[in-house]
Design brief:
The protein is of the alpha/beta class and about 220 residues long. It has 2 domains: about 20-60, no CATH class; about 70-215, Alpha/Beta hydrolase fold, catalytic domain (Rossmann fold), CATH 3.40.50. The chain is about 30% helix and about 25% strand. The protein has 6 helices and 6 strands. Strands 1-2-3-5-4-6 form a 6-stranded mixed β-sheet, sandwiched between helices. β1 (about 70-80) and β2 form a beta hairpin. The longest helix has 19 residues, at about 40-60.
């Protein structure tokens, strides 16, 4: 196969099947209530949305307690390729610090769009989106900062609190701290804390925020 030639199965993944097998799992349509009655009003959908959100959060679990202040501590700083890149530390939960890379254009500016960049499943963690290790295509935070964005790449708790070679130790740590909270809920909460930190930056427009990730 040539370098730019697509594998034989590629086209199949981009076509819808001619028919769906009768035993294929079928998700419940969203526009039905708990009794499977059709929802045909906005008020009905609003009620159903509230129920679904409550069910989902109940399944995931929630991090209790107030959020800490949006204060950061700069641990390292350099200026690669027209960007200010800072390794920072901040609290996700009160008294619980996490590291991340904060990247912005190396020129004065205000009201910039901000993006939370979630790293891949890699031992490099935040160093990859920050442009310090790994695949250049995944240096997403660095690329965004070069294009005028402010980017924050936070480290996932699985690597922040794991033991060498055992990511599951971070889940054990989480359950000891919050017995009824899932790992996905912790990731969601920490990502929302990254949004808090990003929105608090003086050169970021809190009305223009986004998130991007890989894996």
């Amino acid at each position: 196969m040539q370098q730019n030639e697509k594998p034989s199965w590629f086209r199949m993944t981009q076509r819808r099947p001619l028919s769906v097998p009768p035993d294929a799992p079928r998700p419940m349509p969203l526009l039905f209530d708990r009794e499977h009655r059709p929802i045909d009003t906005f008020a009905g959908w609003t009620r159903r949305r509230t129920e679904m959100r409550k069910d989902w959060l109940s399944f995931l679990g929630t991090i209790p307690g107030p959020r800490p202040r949006n204060t950061i501590k700069v641990l390292q700083q350099d200026r690669p390729q027209g960007v200010v890149r800072q390794l920072i530390s901040y609290e996700t939960e009160p008294g619980l610090a996490v590291e991340g890379y904060l990247l912005r254009p190396d020129r004065p500016g205000r009201a910039r769009p901000g993006v939370v960049v979630l790293h891949s499943t890699t031992a490099a963690t935040i160093r990859e989106p920050a442009g310090l290790e790994g695949n250049p295509d995944l240096h997403i935070g660095l690329h965004l900062a070069q294009r005028g964005y402010v980017a924050l790449a936070p480290r996932c708790f699985l690597w922040q609190y794991a033991k060498p070679g055992r990511l599951g130790a971070a889940v054990d740590w989480l359950h000891a701290r919050h017995p009824k909270v899932s790992g996905m809920a912790k990731m969601f909460y920490d990502a929302s804390r990254a949004v808090d930190i990003l929105a608090a930056q003086e050169d970021v427009d809190p009305r223009r925020l986004g998130a991007i990730g890989h894996s």
